[in-house]
Amino acid sequence: MKTKYIDLIDQTYYFPQEEFALRDDHLLFHGIELMDLVKEYGSPLKFMYLPKITENISRAKGWFADAIHKYDYKGNYHYCYCTKSSHFRHVIERALDAGVFLETSSGYDLSIVETLLGEGKIKPEDMVVCNGFKQENYVTKIADLLDRDAMKVLPVLDNFVEIDQIKEKTKKPFSVGIRIASEEEPKFEFYTSRLGIGYKNIVPFYKQYIRDDEQVSLKMLHFFINTGIRDTAYYWNELQKCLRVYVALKKICPSLDSLNIGGGFPVKNSLAFSYDYAYMVDEIVNQIRIACEEAEVPVPDIYTEFGSYTVGESGGTIYKVLYQKQQNDREKWNMIDSSFITTMPDSWAINKRFIMLALNRWSDTYERVLLGGVTCDSDDYYNSEQHVNAIYLPRFSKTYPLYIGFFNTGAYQETIGGFGGLQHCLIPQPKYVLIDRDENGEITTKLFKGQQTADEFLNQLGY
Prior knowledge:
alpha/beta
């Protein structure tokens, strides 16, 4: 009779997988003995496996290179990293080392760019694509970088006034992009994205504000779908509408040479996850090629802005099960030593699911449970897994502690959760550990930041 936790995982999923394996009843993540991390640093614990960033960037570049070669595509491909997904130095530097451009959302992002530029981490041939709604500080920073002429700067216009705001700050010639306000899926509460300029308004906007302006030239058309790059009729329909705008603009705008298809590559959120990245890249490149050939215009350089895909699968969060509460005849609550609201806010705010596995005791029998955080908030829980609709873990034991891990949590969780700041119910931010490999492939670990202290909280609260 198969009643062990390992039996459950083995009969539900294909296991082991590329990043997960088992050794002596303990879970391995990319060959890392996670219980060794627990023994050295304790729990709760956040970690970042930096080599995964390089790996995912290389994979995406490879898919585009294959498609470009297959179709004899005459344009180039450029990978941009969205800094908003994770602003940490160790993330951005690792992405830059892999040969990417940066995409920013605010003036504070550009302060990071200025720092890295001053340190020589960003080279003159590198580009920063400046997206988002631009307040005065953002516009000023863009103009300062344009005036310095130390790297390529491409502001993407979100509305009709930003071009004049930039011109007020700099007299240098500069290029811009225009963001398309795409139509949302029917299930959305609104029809058109609040970001960008409507399809029908883009060509008239170019003719009126850019075509005869000697200071400004149009380089890029930016296209982004909120639901991400997925093999759906909705995505392909929006891409075709974007391509119609591109070819119409290209016929009257020789300087237009780039199409930014945004971001949205999904992150693995279940052991049953399936997504054909290579097929999607192949089809996108082919669709762009076909549209341009039919319109008899040159194909554009292709830009992507991958954030979650770049950094998401490098992160993980580890908790210890402190106690089990039997609240009724059906519900058992395993209480973790932290809070889901503060450490994995996407799971609380938008019901996002992550891969969740036990770190130890895989040979023990399992039980169905709910997971609860330690705050006094009734919403501080995690109650289902993707494709399973229930959580099964090794049975609770007072004498043999159970540790659990949530994986692919590397994007957004720290910034949304307010890393190092005030936390709900003053639950401290966990330790944060960086994991890397040296030149010999050996695993190295480094404590990036310790767990928050009471003094840090009190100082921020004015005590």
